[in-house]
Amino acid sequence: MSNNPFQQQVDEFMAKIKAKNAGELEFHQAVMEVAESLIPFIEENPKYKHAKILERIAEPERVILFRVPWMDDKGEIHINKGYRIEMNSAIGPYKGGLRFHPTVNLGILKFLAFEQVFKNSLTTLPMGGGKGGSDFDPKGKTDNEVMRFCQSFMMELFRHIGPNTDVPAGDIGVGGREIGFMFGMYRRLKNEFTGVLTGKGLDWGGSLIRPEATGYGQVYFAQEMLATRKTDFKGKIATVSGSGNVAQFATQKATELGAKVVTLSDSEGYVYDPAGIDAEKLAWVMHLKNVKRGRIKEYAQKYKADYVDGKRPWEVKCDIALPSATQNEINGDEAKLLVKNGCYCVSEGANMPSTPEAISVYIDSKILYGPGKAANAGGVATSGLEMSQNSMRMAWSREEVDQKLHTIMVNIHKNCVKWGTEQDGFINYVRGANIGGFVKVADAMIAQGLI
Ligand code: NDP
Questions:
Q1: Deepest of 67, 85, 286, 447, by most Cβ within 10 A of its Cβ?
Q2: Which residue's C-alpha comes closest to atom 17 of ligand 1?
């Protein structure tokens, strides 16, 4: 039974969303979570209701869908789908990553683009929201195959993006290698060297700390949440899911701050190392994942740790959980198990890793819960810093970028506290992030007229 006094309005709004976007389950889920926080706020602020901002914000400004043909090393032709969702550009050029994964579909990319609008607004930088990608699976492909795919993908995408229009970045399956291949093709097609993608290599327009930024930011956000309860990472046990970009740097920063990270995972299972994944072991994981492109179970053989096939790490006892793999990777039962085992802080590096049932468990248990759109905003924030450096044609030092990232995460936390603190002092970070992200975009949309 919902305790939202505006449940009927939420239900009516969601019925329209579901009818208009049939079958897009992840998109419904993301919009629902936002609508539950925003509809009560909008009822109290009729200017947003009158301008139908929520209805407008849930409809992409533009959706681009295209064919991506490419040839494998044996000469066989493959055809994938390519997408770019240009969701909202009221406060800046569309900005958001590209995901290459076989599960990619329109509903998943629309959920990601929708979340991105709020996230980018929270960073305080001038960036609109977008997302894109393909159902292409880079796993098991050679470098040459990945290059041919990326070139074909960019051969269509290039006409829709640009440094003042839409600036994509990486996401699942898109790291430095893929960004390099796509940037090279864009540059060739347009005959110009601009900051059209972020996550670039350091020698050709990239920013220091960009690879680290999402995981570091996720940990900085957790640090701020922990500080509200007068504690920190020192001596804490942390569980991390995933073993890709975000998971690697979340592990690194949490360890640096004194925690012991005991798990990592991939789509096949998780490793549990009670001794902790220290800097040396993490360097080995980075080589395994980023160079050898192997599976996490190899860690268990190398370091004599446990490997649990086909499961996720939420059954392991921890103080802090750092989900960093993918959407809906913690369900209601897993959330209950986390809380039962004493976990009191969840900071999301992945986008929407917790199901609605899991989120209810966190909120009802009043644990510290930082939703992805706030906790993982450090990635896109540092992409914003990369764009600034590209525009100025200069590069900041590692310390400067890290300091700016840290300040942005502190400010996002403050904004969540401002909008999310409840009467009993509990900070509802879901509400805080949704309202905090919404206000700036909504005001910009009203100021710019009915467009
Ligand atoms: P990577 O591709 O580097 O790593 C993804 C990791 O998650 C891999 O370990 C992968 O395992 C695992 N994974 C992917 N899909 C699934 C699945 N369906 N089930 C279980 N495990 C899965 O991606 P990132 O680290 O960049 O992204 C991780 C999350 O963080 C995503 O939700 C992304 O949207 C989010 N994010 C990323 C940002 C960035 O800057 N990169 C910014 C903000 C959010 P396997 O190798 O087996 O597929």
A1: 85
A2: 267
- Ligand 1: atom nearest CA of 265 is 9
* In the block, residue with structure tokens 């809380």: 339
Q: Which atom of ligand 1 is nearest to the CA of 289?
A: 46
Provide CATH code, domain 62-193. 3.40.50.10860
How many whole angstroms separate alpha carbon 113 and alpha carbon 171? 12
Taking the C-alpha atoms of residue 15 and residue 400, their distance in angstroms, rounded to an integer, is 47
Pairing of strands 260-266, 237-240: parallel
Q: Which residue, judged by its Cα, is nearest atom 3 of ligand 1?
A: 244
Mean local confidence (pLDDT), 92-112: 98
Domain edges within the chain:
62-193, 213-370
Across the chain, mean pLDDT equals 97
CA of 147 to the centre of ligand 1 (A): 20
At the second CATH level, the architecture of 213-370 is: 3-Layer(aba) Sandwich (3.40)
Contacts of 24 (CB under 8 A, 6+ apart): 106, 107, 110, 111
DSSP conformation class of 354: B
Task: Please report, as a single letter, which amino acid is at residue 122.
Answer: L
Please give the positions annotated as active site: 131
The whole-number pLDDT of residue 192 equals: 96
pLDDT tens digits for 7-59?
A: 999 999 999 999 999 999 999 999 999 999 999 999 999 999 999 999 999 99
Which two tokens mark 250?
Answer: 């979340």
Q: Which token pair is 44?
A: 């109290």
Q: What is the largest CA-CA distance in the chain?
A: 65
The residue whose two tokens read 């109290």 is 44
Give residue-wise pLDDT tens across range 218-274. Answer: 999 999 999 999 999 999 999 999 999 999 999 999 999 999 999 999 999 999 999
CA of 194 to the centre of ligand 1 (A): 27
Helices (H) and strands (E) in the chain, counts: 17, 12
Ligand 1 cavity residues, CB under 6 Å: 101, 103, 170-173, 175, 214, 242-247, 266-268, 324-326, 349-351, 376, 379
Domains 62-193 and 213-370 share a fold: yes
Here the tokens at position 240 are: 């991390």
Q: Whose CA is nearest to atom 48 of ligand 1?
A: 267
Say yes or no to pLDDT of 1 above 80: no
The helix (run of H) or strand (run of E) holding residue 402 is helix 398-420
Which residue minimizes the CA distance to atom 21 of ligand 1?
267
